[in-house]
Specification:
The chain is mainly alpha-helical. It has 29 helices and no strands. Helix 15 packs across helix 20. It comes from Linum tenue.
């Protein structure tokens, strides 16, 4: 009885399959006749064909265990393939019309089985060989664009493969055609990196196909005239940098699993005119952007939001693996040596690393390697100047980037679960803060304005504290000659330009912390480190000026003493006292944070009162 039931089931399945195949043949035949006859209902027939194929692919993919549905999918694809390659091949008008629907429809079968993927590739390849290449780029790009929003972006594999092949066939306007396809491909890969996170094989396949496309385009670029070749290589350079960012973020659990893809990307870097030095200093990135964006109205750059992240990651991956660096034709030891001995390039490199430190999607392991790289290029002693082999007219252009890197490193310190990474990040933060401090020695007229704006926007107390401690350390090393025994005399010797830059800004630095520009008073524990550093800086300057009977910083002017006492120190004392008395706060935690602050605060108040009493007639 079971055997009989099985035979009946097989017979019904065969009958159902025959009906499906017959319907497909009828639909294809009707479309061909309508196209050849120029009939009005052609569009409707093509849509009906696409809808029919979609229903079959959906049935097969929605029930992966349904063997009959998988078999139907294979038979239908074979029927389409047979129809296209048969001796009665339709004329070009029919081929062109079918190309608008069939490539997209058959690509949806790619996820059913490896056999379906193979046949779908073959069908799309057939259209690529028989249709106008520029038309096929548009058709495949539109199909990809629609699939990127579908429930399964894994269907994109045959379309990406076809797009890779069609570029080789283009005879002219290569750069224009590539600009049409690249945004669509990157959008698909962005979806893939999220939606296929648990399907490694499919994700890696799609990234490899995209890299193969980039490789094909690079090959084509070598056969073009210099102008278009440069444009195409620059576009591919930005393309693979964006892919580098996606790849690095999409495989966070296994670094080893990511390495083969990264190696393939780095292999393409030299072919696109990209070097590790140019990437880490941003010069290559800027050069490629300049070439690609000659058309000012072009919005192509919106497709590369993470290109600078990808540029930084390319170098860090080379530092992680010698094999990867060799694929890029690079020597990491030589690169680090250049950065150690070239002050400007070191600043630029540190500025580029902010993209890695600030990323919320990269694994901690990559950030750990990035910290190690930063520590490596900042080893040794540095002199506080803004000069290199060539004179620099304005060092202030590096300040915002360095400050952003410092803020990003602070995020790592605050959020990293690894104590060793936090410790190394703190050392990295101190070194970056030193370079910020180093820039403040320059004679740039608006350097300080940039620094004050950056500190005002800074969310992390520890970063501000480190910079203020560096200022205090520098003042400790300086020998301040006497300006005048008359503390009211504002004329006289202002010292060196560097001295003047520091001395005139001390009160502003302290006020930035004790009287925040957004109003109110500093809060605890958020601003504890910065408040203590500001108080220590003010106390040190007050004691040094009093002992030396100088007033280079202006802190001993009576109006400044009264302002500091009444507007900064006394209100701060109230906040500290209320915080320590608050029963909701942990006594041990509060004492550990506020006791040092309270000690320095009361000493500052005492010093201010002593100076006010000693010089009641000073202005």
């Amino acid at each position: 009885k079971q055997a009989t039931r099985d035979r009946l089931s097989d017979a019904m399945a065969e009958k159902e399959l025959s009906a499906v195949v017959l319907r497909l043949r009828h639909s294809l035949s009707s479309c061909c006749k309508s196209i050849e006859g120029g009939e009005e209902e052609t569009s409707g027939l093509l849509e009906e064909l696409a809808s029919f194929l979609d229903s079959i692919s959906e049935a097969a993919t929605s029930e992966p265990e349904n063997e009959e549905a998988r078999k139907n999918a294979v038979e239908l694809l074979l029927e389409i393939q047979s129809f296209l390659v048969s001796s009665s091949t339709p004329n070009q008008a029919v081929v062109d019309a079918l190309s608008f629907e069939l490539p997209k429809a058959v690509s949806k079968f790619a996820g059913v089985s490896d056999r379906c993927l193979e046949i779908a590739d073959s069908i799309i390849d057939w259209f690529v060989g028989r249709c106008n290449p520029r038309d096929m780029i548009c058709i495949l790009s539109e199909a990809l664009d629609s699939l990127s929003t579908s429930s399964d972006p894994g269907y994109a594999a045959p379309l990406l493969t076809g797009l890779s092949k069609v570029f080789v066939s283009i005879k002219r306007h290569h750069f224009k055609q590539a600009k049409l396809a690249v945004p669509v491909v990157l959008n698909v890969l962005k979806v893939v990196s999220v939606e296929l996170a648990d399907r490694d094989a499919e994700r890696v396949l799609l990234f490899n196909i995209a890299l193969a496309m980039a490789d094909s385009i690079c090959v084509v670029s070598t056969k073009l005239d210099r102008g278009e070749s440069e444009e195409l290589q620059s576009l591919m350079g930005l393309f693979i940098l964006q892919i580098m960012a996606l790849v690095s973020a999409s495989i966070p659990s296994e670094q080893s699993g990511c390495t083969p893809l990264v190696s393939e990307i780095c292999k393409l870097l030299p072919r696109c005119g990209l070097t590790y030095l140019g990437l880490i200093t941003e010069s290559d990135v800027d050069a490629k952007i300049s070439i690609v964006t000659k058309d000012k109205e072009d919005d192509i750059m919106t497709s590369f939001p993470d290109m600078r992240l990808g540029a930084s990651l390319s170098v860090i991956w080379g530092d992680i693996s010698n094999e990867i660096a060799e694929q890029a034709g690079e020597n990491m030891s030589a690169l680090k040596d250049k950065l150690q001995h070239n002050q400007v390039q070191r600043w630029e490199a540190i500025g580029m690393l902010k993209h890695i430190f600030s990323s919320v999607i990269l694994p901690w392991d990559i950030k750990r390697h990035t910290v190690e790289f930063l520590l490596g290029i900042t080893n040794g002693s540095f002199t506080p100047n803004c000069h290199n082999d060539e004179p620099i007219t304005d060092c202030s252009i590096y300040m915002p980037s360095l400050f952003a890197t410092a803020q990003a490193i602070t995020k790592v310190i605050m959020h990293s679960p690894d104590s060793t990474l936090r410790k190394n990040s703190f050392e990295a933060l101190k070194r970056v803060s030193f370079f910020i401090f180093e820039l403040l020695h320059s004679k740039s007229t608006h350097m300080w304005a940039i620094m004050f704006d950056s500190l005002s926007a800074c969310c992390y107390s520890i970063q501000t504290a480190i910079l203020l401690d560096l200022v205090r350390g520098e003042l400790r090393k300086e020998t301040l000659p006497k300006k005048s025994t008359n503390r009211g005399d504002e004329a006289g010797n202002h010292g060196s330009p560097t001295e003047s830059a520091w001395t005139e800004r001390i009160l502003e630095l302290v006020e930035l912390v004790l009287r925040p520009p957004h109003g109110g008073q500093p809060s605890f524990p958020e601003h504890g480190e910065a408040v203590l550093a500001a108080l220590n800086l003010y106390r040190f300057v007050l004691m040094k000026e009093s002992a030396g009977k100088t007033n280079k910083t202006g802190v001993l002017f009576r109006k400044n003493l009264l302002r500091v006492c009444n507007e900064w120190l006394v209100p701060l004392r109230t906040i500290v006292s209320s915080t320590m008395a608050d029963p909701e706060n942990d006594p041990d935690e509060v004492a550990g944070m506020l006791n040092p602050i309270e000690l320095v605060l009361y000493h500052c108040i005492e010093l201010v009162e002593q100076n006010l009493s000693a010089n009641p007639d000073s202005p």
